[in-house]
Amino acid sequence: MDRSGSKRVLITGGASGLGKAIALKFSSHGHHVAIVDLNDERGQETLDQLKQSGVDAFYQRCDVRKSEDVQSAVAATQKRWGGIDVMINNAGVAAGGPFDWVSSEDWDWVMDINFFGVLRGCQASVPVMKEQGSGHLVNIASMAGLLNPPGMSNYNVSKAAVISLSETLVAELQPWGIGVTCVCPSFFKTNLGESMRSPDKTTSVKLEKLVAGSSDLSADDIAGMIYDAVDSNQFLLMPHEKARLAWDYKRDSLDNHLKAQLKLAQQVKEQAQPAE
Fold first, then answer.
1. Alpha carbon distance 7, 33 (integer Å)
2. Which of 32, 125, 158, 216 has its CA 20 to 30 Å from the CA of residue 245?
C-alpha cells in the first residue's frame, strides 16, 4: 500500500471487535476511515476514537444483508473522499451445531451475512476501484473455511465460500490494479460469541472457552498483520501459528487430517445438547 498519502478505507462491522481494531490501525497511520455497522452506539464510540487521531472519519448504519445498504455505504465513501482505496469486508456472525440439527433458516442466516455480505461488499466497491485503476479488497474469512471442523458445517461453508471468492478475484482483478487479501484467523478475544446461533447449547459454551483461552494474538495484533498484508499485497493471511501448522498437516496428509476429524466428530455427537 502506498504510504505517500491518505487512503480511503471502508470497513463493514467496524464498530467493535476486529473491525474496530482495523479501523484504529488504519487511522493511526493517517488514513481516512469509514465504519459501517448495525450497532449505532458502538459505532459512535468508535467514531469518537477515530476522530481523536485527527483523521477524517464517519459512521453509517449498514446491514450487509441488504444490497442497498452496502451500495449506500460505498457511495457515501466515494462522495466524501472521491473514491475508495481499501474495502474491508469484516462483518460476520458465529454459527454451528450437528449437521442434521441445523435448520435451513440457520443456513440462510449465516450464509446471508458471512458470505453474501462479503460478496455484496465486493460487488459494490469493485466498479469504483476499476474506474480508479487501483484498490484493495480485504475479505475476512476463517481457518474454519480451510480446516472444516465437525459441528460447524454452516459456518465452515460460509467462510470457505469467502476464501474461494477471494482466490478467484485475485487473478480477475489484477489487470485493474486491484489487490485482494483473504484473512483466515483462528480464535482470539473478540465479541463474535454475541452473535452465536446454534441449535446445540454446547456449541456456544465451546466457543466461549476457546475465545477466553486464546492469548497468543489480540485483535490489535491481527489488525496490524492485516495492515501489513495490504501494504505488501499479500493474498492469504493466516495469523495464528497453530492454525498454520494444522493447515500444513492437512496438506501433507489429508487422510490423517480426516482421521483426526473423526475423533472430533465423535465428541460433537456425545456432547451435543438441544438448546432450550
1. 8
2. 158
Q: What is the pLDDT of residues 145-188, one digit of tens each?
A: 999 999 999 999 999 999 999 999 999 999 999 999 999 998 76
Cβ atoms of 217 and 242 within 8 Å: the answer is no
Residue numbers of the domain that contains 19: 8-271
d(CA 14, CA 228): 18
Radius of gyration of the chain (CA): 18
CB 88 within 8 A of CB 11: yes
User: In total, how many domains does the chain have?
Assistant: 1
**3 within some domain:** no
**Residue 115 grid coordinates:** 458470505
Name the CA dihedral angle for 242, 244, 247, 248, rounded to a multiple of 10 degrees.
-100
227 in active site = no
For residue 200, give the C-alpha cell. Answer: 446445540
- CA-closest candidate to residue 89, choices 57, 114, 55: 114
User: Is 276 inside any structural domain?
Assistant: no
CATH (domain of 84): 3.40.50.720
For the purposes of burial, counting CB atoms within 10 Å of the CB of 92, is it exposed (0-12), middle (13-18) or buried (19 or more)?
buried
Alpha carbon distance 211, 252 (integer Å): 28
Q: Which helix (H) or strand (E) holds 193?
A: none
- Contact between 43 and 94 (Cβ < 8 Å): no
- Considering the candidates 59, 155, 227, 249, report the single residue annotated as catalytic: 155
Residue 1 lies in a domain: no
Is the entire prediction scored with pTM above 0.70? yes
Q: What is the largest CA-CA distance in the chain?
A: 56
